[in-house]
Amino acid sequence: MAETWTRGDYPRTITLDPSGRYLYALNQRSDNVTRFAVDPHSGKLSFIAGYTPVGSPSQMVFAPATQ
Question: What InterPro entries is this protein classified in (predicted)?
């Protein structure tokens, strides 16, 4: 597996979204969240370019979809 720099430092929490299609890493020291696509067949992660700046992220909760 090739190494990819994601601008993430000290991932405090790693979580899957409810669909299982995306994995999120909440990076406490770099104050950002990085996102990866999950291959449904192999489980391999692919970094999705870019990151979301967030001050010292520690937890992530997904709200149920409403209609």
Answer: Cycloisomerase_2, Lactonase_7-beta_prop, N2O_reductase_N, WD40/YVTN_repeat-like_dom_sf
